[in-house]
Amino acid sequence: MFSFIVMACCMQVPATNTGVTVDDYFSLSYLSSCEISPDGKWTAWTEGRWDAELDRRNTDIWISTTEQGEPTRLTFDEANDSSLHWGIDSEWLYFSSRRGSKGDDLPRNGKLQVWRIRPGGTGLMAVTRLPDGVSDWKLSCDGASLYYKLEDETQLDDGWKALRSSHDKVEYAHGEVDYSELWKLDLRTWRHELLWDEDVVIQYFTPSPSGKSIAIITTPDQRLITNEGWSVIGVFDVASKETTVLDDTLWRAEAPSPYGWVEAPEWSTDERRLLFTVDYDGYQREMFVATFEVENSGIQKVIRHNEVTIGSDPQWMPNSHTILYIAEEGTGRPLLRVDTVGFGLQGDTTQIVSNNFMCWDFSISSNALQMVALVSSPVTTTSVVKVTDSPGDVVVITNPNKHVSDWNIPSVETVSWLASDGTTVEGVLELPKGYSKTDGPLPMYVDLHGGPTSARQAELQFSMYGRGLLSTQGWAVLSPNYRGSTGYGDKFLTDLIGRENDIEVQDILAGVDAMIERGIADKDKLAVGGWSNGGYLTNCIIATTDIFKAASSGAGVFDQTMQWAIEDTPGHVVNYAQGLPWTAADELQDMSPIYEADNITTPTIIHVGAGDARVPAEQSLALYRSLHDYLDVPTQLITYPGTGHGLSKMTHRRAKIEWDKAWFEYWVLGTTMEEESDSQ
């Protein structure tokens, strides 16, 4: 047993360069999930690596013995393999893949199919071979069956069906719905059986261990807006074909918002408990347990210890009524255990992986009760680890980014300051390696996280949004966890309700003042930026103050009324404004920096995906028009074609990183455009 942090420190060697370059960034692997075999012998994980020819990060499956064996790559394809699940005998590893071309050759037709492979790398085969692929799937607990979901396009018979059918070359906002079918594939006879074919859309499903029941979460149609308050959870009886819908009083009528998303159902091993979550914009995600017993039945909300934020889909420990979930607590992400949960019962909450780590995923073996996880820390990037009996110790199975130890990695620490109302606010501060206050104040970049129901963690990371890159090139990087951030209790989160473009802006500016007062930041060399809600806050801040010499606004809201009208999840705006445009017009205007745009003087670079449904490009176009055409503020608008709310293409990320670097160096550090061009 070793301390993960001690091991990481021991791996440090003298730096061989002076800053992390863009090419260095694209040398990093990304660990997204891990899965331990039922017998505990094997640990598999998904690892994404950048591929210049594909112009994206491609994900393959890797495997090792859990006892720190040599990592072996299992798959070699351009299909982004994902969704790992072991068969009950540990002989097969099942996964999702879009292998092949876009042709009709089954199963390699480019559609999402279920595949499986043996841990030794042999026996690769397609389990499903469907013309349109599957949209979701689950393996039965006994490993004998595969449940999968298909989509069936249906024309609603609402009086306009015939007219829509006669003009089928145009698109309609509603009236055509991809209703769900649920099928079962017997892995011994290879026969398919249709279980469910009703006029609803299945968002989540999970069969019970015996297969007698299936927990199903449905919505009226496939639009994301119908997840916000319209989602319903029920239990489908396979024999009778009847569905019992669970009473939703706890997460609708008695919840702070009616716009919750019901998600992530999971059965306990004995089928007496059904665990699920309800997620809200602006409010805490909550866990609920439905108990099915003759004398003790009902639904209860699970109490979150210390008002932590739920940071992952919770799971039952095998053969128990104990819940495991990743929490967000301050700038850490511990793995927690909640003992004995049932109707009217809840035991103690304890740490399985301590708050000193950032836990991103975990998996527990059904037979050996061993556990593995994806964990990072302030001095190490994410690694696959084996969890031990001590919350503060883990054993590293593999770290695919060990070469980072050759870099001039920044110091990462949690800092705090007082907001204007006396509330303590935290953030993550990155400083160049070896920096001392005696070296004098640094240029500082303020990195604003999205969400806003999210937070920055005190981990070593390298991000296109600034973390790890600017701090290795001589900048301080401050990432404030402003009001509305997760991990700081219920009040801290909900204080933002009704006060966007106000309280969180003051929290951020108080943090900047604190770094200046502590001699860390140079008040004359400040930059600010963020993506999504971070882009929105960038717009708010530059409309509030002129202390920043440059800004980077990524996919940021400019007008909240327009945002409600055009985004795909408008419940977000409704919750924060506490009303709709015709009931909360003044609140929506107060939340919108467009009405203060004439205060903006900060040179601003704007980034947005052309196909962004979450914060549509019209928001960024409005910001650009205001600054460039009417206010004569130096600006650039970069639109990324074929891209949604995040930048997934390698060329797009390179463009953003290099444009931001050049923009900040020119406007903050005074580098000339010619010099900057020569340095690229």
- Could you say what the CATH topology of the domain at 425-679 is called? Rossmann fold
CATH architectural group of the domain at 425-679: 3-Layer(aba) Sandwich
Strand content: 25-35%
> Number of DSSP strands?
37
Contiguous runs where pLDDT drops below 50 for at least 5 residues: 1-17, 676-680
CATH class of the domain at 425-679: Alpha Beta
Class of secondary structure makeup:
alpha+beta
Largest sheet: 8 strands, mixed
Overall mean pLDDT: 94
Kindly state the percentage of residues in helix: 10-25%
The side-by-side strand order for the widest beta sheet comes to: 30-31-33-32-34-35-36-37
Q: How many helices? A: 12
CATH superfamily of the domain at 425-679: Alpha/Beta hydrolase fold, catalytic domain
Q: What characteristic shape results from the CA principal axes?
A: globular
Supply Rg: 25 Å
Distance between the termini: 45 Å
What does this entry look like structurally?
Residues 1-17 and 676-680 have low confidence and may be disordered. It is globular and about 70 Å long. The strands form 8 sheets. Strands 30-31-33-32-34-35-36-37 form an 8-stranded mixed sheet, sandwiched between helices. Strands 21, 22, 23, 24 and 25 form a 5-stranded antiparallel sheet that branches. It has a 4-stranded antiparallel sheet with strand order 1-2-3-4, with no helix packed on it. Among the domains are: 29-134 and 358-406, Lipocalin, CATH 2.40.128; 425-679, 3-Layer(aba) Sandwich (Rossmann fold), CATH 3.40.50. It is an alpha+beta fold and 680 residues long. The longest helix is centred in the last third of the chain and has 20 residues, at 650-669. The chain is built from 12 helices and 37 strands. Helix 7 packs antiparallel against helix 8.
